[in-house]
Amino acid sequence: MARFIIMALWLALLGSLACESEDSRPDAAVAADVSPGDGATDPMDARPSDADAGVTDAAPADASPMDANAPLGPVVVDISNPQPPPLLSDFRFFRLRNGVPDYNQGVVPYDLNTPLFSDFALKWRAIYLPPGSQIQFHPTDSFEFPVGSAIVKSFAIAPDLRTPEVDVRILETRVLIRYADGWRAFPYLWREDRSDADFFARGAVLPLTFIDPRGQTRTAQYLVPQRNQCFACHDQLNAEGGAFLTPLGPKARYLHRSFPYEGGAANQLTHLAGLGWLEGLPDLGDVNPAFDFSEVATTGTTGLDQLGLERAARDYLDINCAHCHNPNSVQGVTSQLFLSFDTTDRFRLGVCKEPGSAGTGSGGLRFDIVPGNAAQSILHFRMASETVGEIMPLVGRSLRDDPAVELIRAWIDGMAPEACD
Amino acid sequence: MIEPNVQKRRPMTRRVLCCLLPLALALAACGDDTPTEDAGTPDDAAARDSGPRSDAGSIDSGVRVDAGATDTGGSDAAADDAGPSDTGVPPDPFSRFSCAEVSGACLEFLPSEVGDLLDAVNGLSAPTTLVLANGRFALDNALTIRGASGVTLTGQGIDETILDFSSQTAQANGVDVVGDNFTISHLTITDSKKDGLRIETSTNVIVRFLKVTWSGGPLSTNGAYGIYPVRCTNVLLEDSEAYDASDAGIYVGQSINAVVRRNIARRNVAGIEIENTQFADVYENLAEDNTGGLLVFDLPGNPIVGRDIKIHDNIVRENNRPNFAASGTTVSAIPAGTGTFALASRRVEITDNTYENNNTMDIAMISGLAVSSSTGAWAIPLDQVVGSTAGLGLLTNETAVFNFRTEEIWIHGNTHSGSGTSPDGLDPVAREIGALISFLYTFPTDERPVDTYLYDGIGETVVPGTTAAGNTNNNHICVGSNTGATFAVLDLPKLADMLQGTPSVFPTTADIFRPGPPFTPFDCSGFTNGPIADLVLPF
Prior knowledge:
The complex is a heterodimer.
Chain A: H1 2-14, H2 16-19, E1 32-33, E2 47-48, E3 94-97, E4 100-103, E5 107-110, E6 122-128, E7 135-136, E8 150-157, E9 169-179, E10 182-190, E11 197-199, E12 204-211, E13 217-224, H3 230-234, E14 235-237, E15 243-245, H4 252-255, E16 258-261, E17 264-267, H5 268-274, E18 278-279, H6 294-299, H7 306-321, H8 378-384, H9 402-413
Parallel strand pairs in A: 7-18
Antiparallel strand pairs in A: 1-2, 3-4, 5-6, 6-8, 8-9, 9-10, 10-11, 12-13, 14-15, 16-17
Chain B: H1 11-20, H2 46-49, H3 72-82, E1 106-109, H4 114-121, E2 128-132, E3 135-138, E4 143-146, E5 151-154, E6 161-164, E7 175-178, E8 182-190, E9 197-200, E10 203-213, E11 227-230, E12 233-238, E13 241-243, E14 248-253, E15 256-261, E16 264-266, E17 270-275, E18 278-283, E19 286-288, E20 292-297, E21 307-312, E22 315-317, E23 338-343, E24 346-351, E25 354-356, E26 361-366, E27 379-381, E28 395-396, E29 400-402, E30 407-412, E31 415-417, H5 432-442, E32 453-455, E33 477-479, E34 487-489, H6 492-500
Parallel strand pairs in B: 1-2, 2-5, 3-6, 4-7, 5-8, 6-8, 7-9, 8-10, 9-11, 10-12, 10-13, 11-14, 12-15, 13-16, 14-17, 15-18, 16-19, 17-20, 18-21, 19-22, 20-23, 21-24, 22-25, 23-26, 24-30, 25-31, 26-32, 30-33, 32-34
Antiparallel strand pairs in B: 27-29, 28-29
């Protein structure tokens, strides 16, 4: 699904001249007014409006520097300043064209085999490297990025996610900058008129109503994380026990997939290496790709045997859970439940494991995974729940990711039954 | 926009005015040295309260998105309009403590400045004191502190400064901290969806004059923990209060070096818990009206093996609240009426405490295998062990140590009265130990109070021979001189088998070992490898 969306967006980009008028359409179903710059309104106080009332775009597409057709100057990443620039446009990573990022020279978009679920938000990811610098390949960990590089991830929603390219609305852009002493995270919230995005440390909860990819109307309590909440996922411990911020997605196994570049589709790893951006890429055959979750998202789990289910489920858990549920995490390690794709200890994976402090999250169940019985498994229960206090992951999900829950259910139900005690 | 290196933000101006203008009028209203009536919390700690300080503060908060929208201009006006008394002096929002008393970087916040507060805590990069005014701060997300060392968060007093998280829409903690040299004091945290205060992976942590509660009373839907330092080193938790937590009110978990003193825990499932913690001094606390009062335990397989826990001079009474934990949680297995248990614990000294009217029993010593019978679950891979296991003599194999045993427990000098009269046998599924005790002491005819100290006997070579010579004491359980105490050694597996057999047999107290003083062979004193050393925190 993700690949389909990206392709659709890319096609829209190619045809942007023809589509210019789309931006004047009303955004019918995006109910939240997320404007931080709207007079006296507190940005934390996102005002829901009736879904059918229609919020007309305040500005035409070319009303701001971000939408201008003049060439962007070179990207600006000032690592001598630990403070973020006040405006996202100050970086010159991209500007919006028909509501979609149009990346600057030196900024390359990418996608992941299995993405983190964020209440159905659409995501656009890109890498910026300073001219002449390179990313260092790593077989398992996140790649090592050069000082001065950036990872730019934007979140968007559309009124009807069955047609995500229609009236897509960018919400926020999260920027990771590689300083000499490590990564720093800078969240930006887009103004309602999408003229620019402001640095936004305090976070917000946005009620968003939209139609999900299966046609159901959903209302998310969409979390724009406060800056410190970046650490909830991105902080890991090094061998000495010190915490450091790290990107999560740019790993070999998640990048090993095709992307529809302007010049044609190509494998992302090969493409980056071809640009001279990626050093140390081995033969592609030696890199195991993560499961392409878009298959499950679009067609469900019916075509998968137990091995396929296992692989898909473990990769989903890896990208959605293991940033906390791993032995080197800052938060989550207390659970001693480790959901990385390469966890081999079945007890640590949750099999017949009782949680230490799940609280109401246990749902009255005893074990994280009861093989053969998803209905008795806390892992499944917490992923399926939309009740505060039960939901996992704790950050960034208020809605159930239905295809993923079906995947986890099929995986656990397909295990050889075991009576835990 | 918050400028770098600003030490006193705008609210300071109002505060200075407050204190300068009406010198001739009502000085008491804003005199910082004048004793105030704020919630009865001692004020003498204020001066030493502000924690680590520095004059090198810089605020990395970046840009104000909503310039003017929630800024001090509007709220100042509102406050001024609302406030003037006949004397023209508005109530001092910083009646106990203000930035005027701080030499380093310091920021003040009114309840109307929640957005500014969030901007500030999300941009801290240097030691900073955050002073919250009197009043209720409404937050719909956690108040997070990350990365900066030396942050102090302080209010005007318990129930004077309230952080209200009732509008949270996600399962977030209230105050959520990762940062060394952190101090929190003089405020109330209420209605967080998850833990009230969670401090994780931090060194040198001080919590004092803090109250955590949930406004709906004790409900299973409340957040789990009230005050929860976890994976911390050097914790001082004192003069604080926790109510209504659906798990533990005060929970020191997986930490090394913790002093827990003069706190109050009421109406929680577990009042005070010391879990997988090494070197804890727990004293002068009150645990009352919880399901279980003051508990010491290890979780299966957790990398920090609990040890050296001294529990003294506490009051543990009337912990008879029906268990309201969500079913399936670990604490849902605690029988109502539990004073203390030491579960999967070692080197625990329980002395000079007062236990009263805990209806199931005052102190139980239980092997981890009684709650999780698979020894494999208690394996800690050798390369994951955190902290010191030297001298513990833990069960081990080539790859792991195991922490299920309860051994080296020393109970002496305690005073007991009124407990064990009505054990919680209501739910043999969720709380089988409670049900077993209830059967044992109340069926069919042998009705008597449950013995003060119950030891499950798991791990003993011979148990429970009804004569001293018939019992071993492999686990070095030492019961010294106490007031009003009796002691019994159960054989939990055997008793459970009797009950669950076909036909089932009701065990009675005749089936267990109930020695009188001096409780031979349990009449030892101290620990095999020397006493618990006095704990001195480095601050």
